Amino acid sequence: MQLQQLLKSLELRNHAPTEQWNPQYCGEIPLHIDANGKWFYQNSPIGRQRLVKLFASVLICENGEHFLVTPVEKVKISVADAPLMIVAWQQIDSEQGKVMQVTTNVDTQYPLSEDYPLVVKDQVPYVQLDHGLRAKVGRNVYYQWAELAKVDEASQTMRLTSGASSFILGHL
């Protein structure tokens, strides 16, 4: 597939159809995503956001390892924590009530829901995404959510509601 065709197809969706591809593993490349969701190639920051979005659109996670997948090759990359960051959110109206829609650092959007749940690991909140990926909740978003969270005295937790779902944001 030509680069222009791939870019055009990605304008219609957030992620390439990597689940339909079964390419040969080609080794590791010197691409790294740091703990703040910044992308680097050979220790140099990737400054073109469009290129980062392209890479993110073919990124998958299998058994805790991250790969870029195309129809013809699969290469391993290193990721310090989560490859994506939740950098913004908004509430949108739906049939289930107000749903929290989160936005990643590569401008993909997901509704906080049972399909894309908020999970807390080692006291750090993440949103579980497609393709085995997860996005770490940015500090600014976390503090905004902490102000909205309801305290559940029985379980000693702070909880967020999004539509019909409720998620633990943290423990008291």
What does this structure look like?
This protein is α+β, with helices and mostly antiparallel strands. 15% of the residues lie in helices and 48% in strands. It contains three helices and 15 strands. Strand 10 and strand 11 (124-128) form a beta hairpin. The longest helix has 10 residues, at 139-148. It is elongated. The protein starts with a helix and ends with a strand.
Structure, briefly:
With 172 residues, this protein is α+β, with helices and mostly antiparallel strands. The chain has helices at 3-10, 49-56, 139-148; strands at 24-33, 39-41, 44-45, 59-62, 65-69, 73-79, 84-94, 97-104, 109-111, 118-121, 124-128, 134-137, 150-152, 157-162, 165-171. Residues 1-13 have low confidence and may be disordered.
Feature tags:
alpha+beta, 15 strands, six-stranded mixed β-sheet, 48% strand, disordered N terminus
